[in-house]
Amino acid sequence: MQLLSEQELERRKDREELMKIGINPYPAESFPINVTALDIHNNYENRKNDYKNISIAGRLMSRRIMGSASFAEIQDSTGRLQVYVRRDDICEGEDKTLYNTVFKKLLGIGDFIGVKGYIFTTQTGEISLHVTELKVLSKAVKPLPVVKRDEEGNVYDGFTDPELRYRQRYVDLTVNPEVKNVFITRSKIISNMRRYFDDHGWLEVETPILQQVHGGAAARPFQTHHNTLDMPLYLRIANELYLKRLIVGGFDGVYEFGKMFRNEGMDRTHNPEFTSMEIYVAYKDYIWMMEMVEECLEKVTESIHGTTKVKVGEKEIDFAGPYRRLSMYDSIKEYAGVDVSEMNEEGLRKVCAEMGIEVDDSMGKGKLIDEIFGEKVEANLVQPTYITDYPIEMTPLAKKHRSKEGLVERFELFVNGKEIANAYTELNDPIDQRERFEEQLKLAARGDDEAMAMDDDFLRALEYGMPPTSGLGIGIDRLTMLLTNNSTIQEVLFFPQMRPEKKVKIATDEDFMELGIPAGLIPAIRDLNIHTIEQLKEQDINKLFNDVCGRRKKLKLDTSNPTKEEVEAWLQ
Predict the structure, then answer these.
(1) Which stretches make up the Aminoacyl-transfer RNA synthetases class-II family profile domain (predicted)?
(2) Which CATH number does 180-323+383-491 carry?
(3) Which architecture, in CATH terms, is 6-144?
(4) Residue 156: its pLDDT value, please?
């Protein structure tokens, strides 16, 4: 049974009334649209002759009924438009049902309507549509939240609860239309980045999401099962190893925008599924990749904002290159005041203990260094900064540094204290790669559930030969957070992961009877739209007494009225 509010019940009645008078509240035929609200507001003053015969559709968002004429607002995907509805203009002949009954009584805020007519300017100077035809397109049976705005358009009582907004994004986008701009910007980030790659001749590809081996990153995977093949599969944690296979196959540059899945924690910058862009270019190294990233992000930022500078909280971030470069060891020395370059695992554990950093026995040297870096360094990296030259233990897929023993050619790009890009000079020595995987297996045996698995097919691909290659991954969600000035990842995802909604327990007849309600009166209780014990306890005693007596009579129930004292006892 679905719990319905009084408004929902009334809207369902309105739906039935529309059908009774011969109006389908959900017509199948298309409605012609030849203009948008934004187009009208931007161009009407300069092209008035073009707006004499227009057709537009959208949600009804407000109404001011004034006898035989009314003003209303409709909202399409681009904004709002005031409409002027006059009874005699939309009702031909003597039948005024469309205005008197449908428009004034059976339509409500949130319903979709289609209107035709011509644009004019009111005496107060507002561009409006004089309606000559009106059609019901979709009846909403659940009311929209009421968002109040002052005369300057500022919201002071709105749909603002984060959990409700993320869980009901469709409502959020409707009543907080400015939220759309975040997702429009997100789309522009991807399309501009894609255009940059395409202009360089690199190929966009698709690789498997379901994988036999979880590889390409240090992360805990989601596991599933394929029934036909009777085998376990993993949702990909990265697409790196498949993209490298394509480089082996002869492509000089490949990239992919795609969803990754990591069965890990959730917070303001992490979601279990996230969007990443990965690109691999043959005959390049991580130094070349730094210059490419600077140019790409500079162009993307400028194409969206008209400048390379963006506001992030109270800070101003400048994406114009070149970016500062700082090695992993030097960054720890600068911000943590300790040199870890020559330390073994025991020494690193001692440093973590002194700094109050929580670690466990499964962590090897690489993870311990990463914990120190995350705790002491990351927050200081506000302007775009490359952290380079990582310890070999931290990066099983990167090539050994050309001149520094024990390091690999890797960089991560940090902005506003968060990593948004990760890149390597890719390891293409199959023997070295196998040894790195074997080291990962040892970490897994110690209990590291983020250690990489052995991927024999990937190793076989490397054995056929992979040219020198540089690879890069960029977190699209975090980049969008920066370029839209949002501090939580949930704000830039249409539908972030949420805990299941708590289900309302519908009371059984026995539940009501335990409170002393006679079985014969339970139909009256339910007819009052009271279906839970919580709803019953919220009732006013006098009102409930009068309503139950009235419903008993209306429903012709074969039982006597309760006394007011009995009703009061139900609510104790």
Answers:
(1) 186-500
(2) 3.30.930.10
(3) Beta Barrel (2.40)
(4) 59
Q: CA-CA-CA-CA torsion for 388, 391, 395, 400, nearest 10 degrees?
A: 80
Give the mean pLDDT of 326-355.
94
pTM confidence score: 0.86
Helix axes 365-376, 328-336, angle to 10 degrees: 50
Name the nearest CA neighbour of 394 among 375, 358, 370.
370
Contacts of 216 (CB under 8 A, 6+ apart): 236, 237, 238, 239, 240, 241, 397, 452
Closest C-alpha to 247, from 462, 472, 474 = 462
Give the tens place of pLDDT for each residue, 411-470.
999 999 999 999 999 999 999 999 988 988 888 888 877 778 889 999 999 999 999 999
412: annotated binding-site residue? yes
Q: What are phi and psi of 366, to 5 degrees?
A: -60, -45
The amino acid sitting at 278 is E
Please count the other Cβ atoms lying within 10 Å of the Cβ belonging to residue 567: 23
Strand pairing report for 203-204 and 127-138:
unpaired
Give domain limits for the chain: 6-144, 180-323+383-491, 509-570
Q: Calculate what percentage of the chain has a pLDDT beyond 90.
A: 80
Residue with tokens 């959020």: 172
Q: Tell me: the pLDDT tens digits for 171-215?
A: 999 999 999 999 999 999 999 999 999 999 999 999 999 999 988
Q: Taking the CA atoms of 237, 241, 242 and 246 in sequence, report the sign of the dihedral they define.
A: positive
